[in-house]
């Protein structure tokens, strides 16, 4: 969860759920990003450990799909979903939701979810 304070009494809260997602290979997943203010666009990113941010989707209205990934947005209801179909080990990453909103002079806010591959031992628990 991220809370942004800007100006006099201006607040924007962006929440992404779940915070950590553990998947079996081949299963489906859904991430959700909620915004307390009216949003004008959402951008979803993926970041592998130690790697750069990779832009997955930038949306203002229409759902988008790329391979096994799909994203939807509802600016009216202030949320976006990222769907992962038939998860693969390469999907293990941090997923970041960045929201642009209509409040004047207020920067965008973002939050993240870490997705882990259940077929691999957790960090620090090598067997």
UniProtKB/TrEMBL annotation:
PROSITE patterns per UniProt: IG_LIKE
SUPFAM superfamilies documented for this protein: Immunoglobulin
Compartments it resides in: Cell membrane
Keyword field: Adaptive immunity, Cell membrane, Disulfide bond, Glycoprotein, Immunity, Membrane, Signal, T cell receptor
Keyword Membrane: yes
Residue ranges occupied by any Ig-like domain in the UniProt entry: 12-119
Tree of life domain: Eukaryota
Ranges where the record places region Disordered: 108-127
Keyword Signal: yes
Pfam families from the UniProt entry: V-set
GO CC annotations, alphabetized: T cell receptor complex
Quaternary structure note: Alpha-beta TR is a heterodimer composed of an alpha and beta chain; disulfide-linked. The alpha-beta TR is associated with the transmembrane signaling CD3 coreceptor proteins to form the TR-CD3 (TcR or TCR). The assembly of alpha-beta TR heterodimers with CD3 occurs in the endoplasmic reticulum where a single alpha-beta TR heterodimer associates with one CD3D-CD3E heterodimer, one CD3G-CD3E heterodimer and one CD247 homodimer forming a stable octameric structure. CD3D-CD3E and CD3G-CD3E heterodimers preferentially associate with TR alpha and TR beta chains, respectively.
Protein name: Ig-like domain-containing protein
């Amino acid at each position: 969860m991220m809370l942004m304070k800007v100006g006099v009494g201006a607040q924007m809260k962006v929440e992404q759920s779940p915070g950590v997602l553990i998947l079996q290979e081949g299963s489906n997943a859904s991430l959700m990003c909620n915004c307390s203010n009216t949003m004008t666009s959402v951008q979803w990113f993926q970041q592998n450990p130690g790697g750069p941010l990779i832009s997955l989707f930038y949306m203002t209205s229409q759902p988008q799909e790329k391979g096994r990934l799909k994203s939807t947005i509802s600016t009216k209801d202030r949320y976006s979903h990222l769907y992962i179909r038939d998860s693969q080990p390469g999907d293990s990453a941090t997923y970041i939701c960045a929201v642009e909103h209509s409040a004047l002079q207020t920067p965008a806010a973002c939050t993240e979810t870490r997705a882990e591959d259940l077929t691999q031992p957790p960090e620090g628990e090598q067997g």
